[in-house]
Amino acid sequence: MRFTHSITAAAVVLGLSACATQPASQPTQTLPAASASAQQQHLDNPLLMPYQGPFDGVPVFDQMKLEDLKPALEQGMALQLAEIEAIANNPEPPTFDNTIVAMERAGKALDRVFTYYGIWSSNKSSPEFREIQAEMSPKLSAFSTKIIQNSALFDRVKTVYESDELNQRTAEEQRITWLIYNNFAHNGATLTGDAKARYAQINNELAKLYTQFSTNVLADEENYVTYISEDELDGLPDSFIRAAASAAKERDKAGRYAITNTRSSMDPFLTYSTNRALREQVWRTYYNRGDNGDAQDNNAIIKQILTLRDERVALMGYDNYAQWRLEDRMAKSPDNAMDLMLKVWPAAIARVEEEVADMQAIADAEGANITIKPWDYRFYAEKVRQAKYDLDSNEVKQYLQLGKLREAMFYVAGRLFNFAFTPLEEGKVPVFHPDVKVWEVTDKTSGEHIGLWYLDPFARQGKRSGAWATTYRSSTTFDGKQTVLASNNSNFVKGAEGEPTLISWDDAETYFHEFGHALHFLSADVEYPTSHSGVRDYTEFQSQLLERWLTTDEVINKYLVHYKTGETIPAELVAKIKRAATFNEGFKTTEYMASAIMDLKYHTTDPADIEPDAFEKNELQKLAMPEELVMRHRSTQFGHVFSGEGYAAAYYGYMWAEVLTADAAEAFAEAPGGFYDKAMADKLVKYLFSVRNAMEPAQAYREFRGRDAKVDALMRDRGFPLPDNAK
């Protein structure tokens, strides 16, 4: 059991959204005698069974049956609790081996169940699954709380943590012991009596609310689809029209065109549709998710979540939830996180003002007789892009084929990580949907098997929106080498039958971003499962950094080819793309930072003073939020923060990671070999990817860069003026 992940695993299956990475399955273990016979009795449930087949075993996705899920979860929890009791009640004095290592071995069966649970939750949800999810989420929360509140177990961990023996262990072993100890202490293990009971009760109540929040958002994404007719297609690219027709046909609306309630459908529609009334309708449909005043409205749920979180951390003596959350992150405090935000915010909204002025000038020149509204931003931004840079996003899109971009990612992985990707024949390993394809990953030099990479790229009903990465098994060596099973998941709108899927430049960056998470999994060189636990304001750094290779000449010249002619993207078009690199940066930075700042404000304000809709509006007004755009994730659909706790009070982490990203990118740009410099690549893998959390992140970055990162690199990267207090 990677104990530091037990709470995280439960949170994941309760419905984390967006670019979230799920914990991996665990290595082969030797079970305590007390639980070995119990496990043997339940090996008939395929969701509990050890992975089967080639490549050290793979998930049996072809044997997934929903009726097996509930008993598998119940049995898996029982097995893990038996293992924990055996460790906690061991009559021998606590040692690293009989306590920490034993905990690292525990929970293997339940982790396998979480793999399948995560697939149902994120990739193929259904009303039947959501009923099970609603029933099991409080049970999973109670299970996690029972472990964290096991006093005998905590006493053993504390003894090992404070022992002289620990000084003789490796640096990784010392760190995972601290991570495990801190996870106990940070999650209420020291509470007693009524406070301990209330803590458990709060976790149970929150688990139900997280599930309901994510279920409500998914319901609005599935139910609020905009169908348009042929005479309403003006301005839309042919590739988008064909994809929309296909999406409508899948929903039994043949002859119409479906604008699904996901970002990958909404965004291009708002960019190209000349029908302003329809743009407003699609915009409102998307940004009103969870805020429609109906049975799926999330406002009351948000207030309940905030109230319970505040009460829970008060039991442990914290002033607010953000103070508790950031204590063991790189930022250390909400003040430090907010300080970073407020260094960048003035420049971001000033840039928005400039962008809107450019848009309004074009609208006026065209005689549109409008004032720019949020549903106009993308449409007129595209016109400004063409006017200022002679750059047509749809023209660029013709060179962004999903398959070719995947090849480009493989090329980058080969150059930096020495990885080779070989597609597996269909049927070689089970998959959970025909869209899912699998590649074997090997070392290019030695041929050593590294792991498998699963790709599930397309949007469909029952699949949550956004893009994310996950693992079904992580690399460890403490109990014999275990290879990696990594997965990337996206929601691209599939091209019409027989045609490649074309995506936007932003989507191409997201594609590289998520692949960065996969490379982080695949390159891991750690001994213990707990070393895979992440620091939220650091784990996005590696994936953000990989986006930079999309714009390298090697990728552009080899893989950006026209989907019809096969011709390489023209040099003059590339020059336009690079000249426009910071175009619309005000919009992108402001919509993100509005969400990040609001997240911190929600978690540093007394919940009694919060009514979500009004609070969002009022706080953004205080920040002088431009009225021409909205938060990237409005409160009622902010799954990062309210469908689990992974990013709660921590959404700022993307910006924190961006500082590291901009600084590290400058290091590559300055290297003799540029972004493919061998010495820099070696340091990248050694200190930023393979080490995972076996080294304190700030120290790992110093080992790579020779110093801490500086915010001025971020300001330069975004084309913002450098404030006096940035350095």
UniProtKB/TrEMBL annotation:
Domain Peptidase M3A/M3B catalytic intervals: 269-718
Entry EC number(s): 3.4.24.70
Presence of keyword Heme: no
Keyword Nucleotidyltransferase: no
Oligopeptidase A N-terminal domain: residues covered: 80-196
GO cellular component: cytosol
Any one GO molecular function term: carboxypeptidase activity
Signal peptide: 1-20
GO biological process: proteolysis
A Pfam family this chain is assigned to: TOP_N
InterPro entries assigned to the protein according to its UniProt record, in alphabetical order: M3A_DCP (IPR034005), MetalloPept_cat_dom_sf (IPR024079), Neurolysin/TOP_dom2 (IPR024077), OpdA_N (IPR045666), Pept_M3A_M3B (IPR045090), Pept_M3A_M3B_dom (IPR001567)
Stated name of the protein: oligopeptidase A
Family indicated by similarity: Belongs to the peptidase M3 family.
Comment on bound cofactor: Binds 1 zinc ion.
